[in-house]
Amino acid sequence: MPILWRYLLRNYFQVFFLCVSAFISVLLVLRFQEIARFITSEASFTKIILFSLYQIPYILPIAIPISCLISSILLLQRLSYHQEITALRMVGLSLQKIVSPILASGFLLVLLNAMIAFELAPICRSKARMLIYETVTFNPLFILQKESPVKLKNMYIDLQVSKGATSAEDVIIAINNSSNKRLSLFSFRNLSLVNEELEGSAISYISSFDSKQEQGFDHLMIENQDHMKIKAIQLGQFMQHTNWLSHHDYLTLRMLLAKESLEAHSKIPKKILIEIAKRISIAFAAFTFTLIGTYLGLQIGRNQSKKKILWAISLVAFFMLCFIIAKSMYPNALLAISLLLIPHLLIVCASYRQLKLVSKGIE
């Protein structure tokens, strides 16, 4: 590898890894509340560490492009400030050869970001979810809490938790019974986990069913029970939802393509194609942001051009705005995919044109 490449890449990746580390630290702070909720489930120390590590790939697909932007800006600004760009051009190197190592590193980071977005992040998401469900299996009270990471659909729960997550008082559970389209109400004075069994006291159950008469009222059924006992693992498995396994966020590229082929003739909107386009857009953003940072960092005058700064900020804002709008365009798959992919082409063309002008001495 040429000396110039080693010099530029070393300085580029020093800042890059520093920025990624900073984003990971911020991520752990922002997700500390969710990690704290998992800790309250009295999970083992190993599971808590694994759950924390599984949070990191969530932010990496976004952290990598932003780190590329910051790294390329700082590197080119330093080279311009110390007149190293001028020295390299005086020995016969074109601007294209000078920025080639930086752009090549941006392209390699596209491959890394694609691997994280398509493979690593979905796997870590599913493993973190599985850790939660493993905890729920042995302690169903964990999922009944209001601040539980897993939200139960078609169910209202109110309780007062005491003694960590092993005991609760004044428990009220309202469930939407899909079989008869009626509500069922459970009331427990006390609900506690004892020796892997869930024990309840002072239980009341209220439900209703159709009278089968056109003008008749529903029949009301009320049942009271002094004490009940059930295996915690049985109730925990009953409360789990398996449909999350087929959600797009938990599927790798191969599984997304397999699901897309199964739903190809259905009337379901092409959410899978939009999800693939979204991940491609996030992955390619590493190169796009590197190109923007390269243009912004280059200086051929003594003072930083405000016009250049506004131009770079506009390009980044344009990409982020299109990405956010595309997430709300699921009914129109073609429009959503266009908003995700076309901005990259426009930004690359605009940045390349600006770099050509800089190489001619026009800023």
Structural features, described:
The chain has 363 residues and is of the alpha+beta class. It folds into 2 domains: 3-136 and 249-359, no CATH class; 151-230. Helix content is 60%, strand content 16%. It contains 12 helices and 5 strands. It has helices at residues 3-30, 32-39, 45-53, 56-81, 84-90, 95-138, 141-144, 232-239, 253-262, 271-297, 306-326, 333-359, and strands spanning 155-162, 167-177, 182-194, 197-209, 219-231. A 5-stranded antiparallel β-sheet has the order 1-2-3-4-5. α6 crosses α10 and α10 runs antiparallel to α11. The longest helix is centred in the first third of the chain and has 44 residues, at 95-138. The relative contact order is 0.11. The model has no long low-confidence stretch (mean pLDDT 79).
Strand order of the largest sheet: 1-2-3-4-5
The computed structural class is alpha+beta
Shape: elongated
Query: Strand-residue fraction?
Result: 15-25%
Mean pLDDT: 79
Question: Which percent bin holds the helix content?
Answer: 55-70%
Domains, number? 2
Summarize the main sheet. Answer: 5 strands, antiparallel
Low-pLDDT runs of 5+ residues are none
Q: How many whole angstroms does the radius of gyration measure?
A: 28 Å
SSE string, helices as H and strands as E: HHHHHHHEEEEEHHHHH
- How many strands in all? 5
Instruction: Report the span from N to C terminus.
Output: 31 Å
| Total of helices | 12
Brief overview, please?
It is found in: Cell membrane. This protein is α+β, with helices and mostly antiparallel strands and 363 residues long.
